[in-house]
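Lab notebook page, bench 4
Experiment: in silico fold of construct C2
Operator: M.H.
Input chain length: 806 residues
Purpose: comparison with the prior construct
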Amino acid sequence: MGTLFRSEEMALCQLFIQPEAAYYSVSVLGEAGAVRFRDLNPEASVFQRKFVDWVKRCDEMERKIVYMEEEVVKDDIAVPEVDGSDLPPAPDPREMKELETQLEKLETEVVELSQHSRNLHLVHQELTELKLVLEKTSPFFAEEAHRRQSRADGSGVPLEDLQQRHVSFITGIIRKERVLAFERMLWRLSRGNVFLRMVDLPLPMKDPVTGKEEYKTVFVVFFQGEQLQTRVKKVCAGFRAAVYTTPQSATERDNMLKGVNTRIEDMHKVLNTSEVHRRAMLQLVAKDLRRWLVMVRKAKAIYHAMNMFSMDVTQKCYIAECWVPVVFLPDVQKALEDGGRVSGSSVQSFLNVIDTHETPPTYNRTNKFTNGFQELISAYGVANYREANPALYTIVTFPFLFAVMFGDAGHGIIMLLFGLYMVLDERRHMKSRSKNEVWNIFFGGRYIILMMGCFSIYTGLIYNDVFAISMNIFGSSWRANYDWNTTHVNDYLTLDPAKSSYLQYPYPFGLDPVWQTASNKIIFLNSFKMKLSIILGVAHMIFGVVMSIVNYVHFKTPIRILLEFVPQLLFLVMLFGYMVLLIFIKWIMYGPQNSLVTGPGCAPSILILFINMMLMGHTTPLEGCKEYMFEGQETMQNLLVVVAVLCIPLMLLGMPIHHLCTRKASRHSDDDSSEEEEPFSEIMIHQAIHTVEYVLSTISHTASYLRLWALSLAHAQLSEILWTKIMNMGMTIGGLYVGGVMIFIIFGVWAFFTVSILVMMEGLSAFLHTLRLHWVEFMSKFYAGEGYLFIPFSFKTILSEAEEES
């Protein structure tokens, strides 16, 4: 469980480290993850730090590694991952220089090979595009020649005269999505004096620079005049169309096409040879990329940490300040010794614990099971240093309150199976490093989901709900006088506990399954779940108030126990604790077999009793019934209200008066005190706000727990409607074959809506309501949450954050 009850005790330490041992010592501390360094050079900019040059060199090496990894990924070469349990250590400065030289050499080779490959692909693309232009435009030129021949024959003008009119053309290739705008621009600039012919290529072409596949279109533009030629060329350049020069003669075009095909074949051979050499080089590089990246990032983190150190006046050692959990002090001292031994330093580095009045950071040790619950609490606010931690109790209360609203054993089994899937195969999921944020959220809370599933199965059995169906495990405790014909002819039957045929023993576990057939089932469950939510809510709030005494005792403020804890607890217990007591008294006293005076018909309303109690009023009971449940109840209620009201001025004035008295006493004992004192008016205002907030919140928070009742009923009714309206419809379809097929289809529809609506949407709703009950109704009674986290210098955390950013 770690230190979930209270955060670890922290110590502010000074580390005196020898210069030659600093790098190695910080490296060992980074592996341990036990210290949080403080910046001793806050006035210095980033470029004024001592090791800024080393940080820049590490950044440059990281850039080279990332560049080579991008080239490896482009060629679909797998990059072996480094196992988290076998990460390479941070390299020493000598290894860093060797790695820097090696990376520079490899990057140069990769750049040259990539540039050479890119140039070859560009040439190959140009040749391919030229080939396509020659092939696709030949029919256009044939049509143009035929058109000229027709004009010559029809007008009597010789063909040679028409050819001398200088009909020019430009051929090229353009991206398909730019064709419409390209055609429109040509038409506007030429005022309709160009003739454009185009043909779309059926297959996409891969861009050698970006690697993306693009669909393209071959075009030829016919025009007359030098001015139009200039305009057409500018339009082609503006739309980034590749223009290729093609001869006008068909014979010359055929000869050019043959030459282009020959060059393409030669280019294929050169490309294959180049790609084989480049791929072999990248495969060799890919083996160590992740290991190099881990080493460089560790080294950069070390130099970042060393930039926060200061040099002592003698210039003979570095001084570092850091927060350290007291339990880790021996580990830190050992890390300094190990660093000195590895570096061969003749002078030993040492640690010194210093006294401070600063507030230390909060550190709660967690494991993979408790981490999710701790994250729920930290999302609201980080606990103050050594403050009682709600996460310990949330492990039980959170899934239980969720299950009260999500009480269906069938839906709980689905949630349990999903949690087991993530928990049992968590190592593979952690290695896969999914980029799906929703999945990562679910996986981070896998143990919470597992616990919610377990508790939902329990409460589902208590409610006797399994996919809205009741189970008859122990046999019903009801014995009604209805015969077989009566029960099958009547759609609704009312169960009357007052009948003599009712057996006088409770159902062994949970709800009697006979309620599934009763017409007054919803009335019974409505009353039961509403009272249950009040009982659980008041118990949860009382527990929260009791937890405040843990903080008062630890922080040595016993006066707060008398002036805050006692009146708060009395106010809550005198009013709402008494309401819970009335619920139990009503359940016990007003049974169905009792006399007329104490029967269910004479049972007073607890809500009316509570209102009359607060207003000192009365309500006329029914004829033959009593207003109160027991003798002396009115006097007892008046006494409880008086005690609760007297608690309010004690909460309001107790602490301010105590502050005023202790302040006067301190002034008499120390006249030279120069501490700035908070004005009494501000103390009084703060206490008044706190008192009013507590009194009003006690009422509103009790009502807020009714969401347990509302969501539980809503979930049960939705589940029942889904079963009766969908599954029952499939069961009523006649015919053996048709009915079998339809029930199969309808079951799929029912399963889809069950998982998507009842499990996912209703589960999310219940989760959010449970979160609110803990953050507001429970934690507000004792939890301040105004601290700050202890973020250790840890290679594991640094590498994980860097991986997420990349």
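Observations: The chain is about 60% helix and 5% strand. The CA atoms of residues 737 and 743 lie 10 Å apart.
Next step: discuss at group meeting.
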